[in-house]
């Protein structure tokens, strides 16, 4: 008699997130998102993609689009993502996403889409290009997430509202068709508040398009990093002991907290609180700690840049797995909606 022993295979939670290919990754992308991607890849069924459909809202030139997609993939790998552990892919390799986006748009309303903060900000920044893709950005994001039936979405603070919209659209679909087909996913940061890394210009967040000198990129040259940090906005210094830090100073401390040792942060905190701080010293220390942090990335980025075959292999591997999963979801979605079964 033969006994067949099945290894008990625990079902791992699906984790998904993406980044637009609009330039090099910066410290905000890393500490808000990619750091958690790397942490989660060992224990979850992870899908990390490059949101090239989303980047079309700003009408990139085809050559730039391809180059930027390749660059983000290289930077994912340089940051420690492993294609054997996580599924790494391009959004446009999963055209089923566009079909789900269409279905979700039928139940997405103008009023709620117009109220999204990122839409309002972008409409203000690019008044001559307020296109429908910009308005329906959250439904495309919802399609990305629920097509893989993700439960957790590691993102930075700026994506919190988009994730709320995804939850709304998943619930709305389930309610409309009286099903529990789509899990309702959560923005995730290991139980902590979502991260917002500030820029160097005194206010707001670090961003790819926030102006010259605002962001530090993982592949920045040490000289460039020193220059950007030395030029960061400060003020004339504290005048009273233990006074609260104004935003530009708080921002420098936030950066220090993510790249420097706790004793370094404590040292400058004490200096601030007893009014003996010299911002030049703080900036020099911050610059050296940022450089120590980014140098290994910059080196890996350079090495991967010469590995065309490998990059292509990673893209194809990821596309195959992510697409098969998405196709399965869409076969069921079509049936739920009431379309003719074609296969
Ligand atoms: P994108 O490309 O703007 O940003 C990618 C990730 O980086 C995080 N991030 C930050 N986190 C902290 N501080 C900052 N200064 C900072 N700047 C950026 C973002 O929160 C994000 O996690 N809409 C997404 C791309 C996307 C997506 C998705 C994400 C498309 N579909 C589905 C998750 C799930 C975006 O614009 O990312």
| Cα-based radius of gyration, to the nearest Å | 22 Å
Helix content: 40-55%
Strand order of the largest sheet: 1-2-3
Low-confidence stretches: 3-8
Bound molecules: tryptophanyl-5'AMP
Q: So how many helices?
A: 14
Shape: globular
Question: What is the CATH homology-level superfamily of the largest domain?
Answer: HUPs
Structural class category:
mainly alpha
Describe the structure.
By secondary structure, this protein is mainly alpha-helical. The protein folds into 2 domains: about 5-185 and about 310-335, HUPs (Rossmann fold, 3-Layer(aba) Sandwich), CATH 3.40.50.620; about 210-300, Tyrosyl-Transfer RNA Synthetase. The chain has helices at about 25-40, 50-55, 60-80, 95-105, 110-115, 115-125, 130-135, 135-145, 160-175, 220-230, 245-260, 260-275, 280-305, 310-335, and strands at about 15-20, 45-50, 85-90, 150-155, 185-190. The strands form 2 sheets. The protein has a 3-stranded parallel β-sheet with strand order 1-2-3. It has a two-stranded parallel sheet with strand order 4-5. Helix 10 packs antiparallel against helix 13 (about 280-305). Mean pLDDT is about 95; it is low at about 5-10. Tryptophanyl-5'AMP binds next to strand 1, helix 1 and helix 8. The site of tryptophanyl-5'AMP has 27 residues, from strand 1, helix 1 and helix 8.
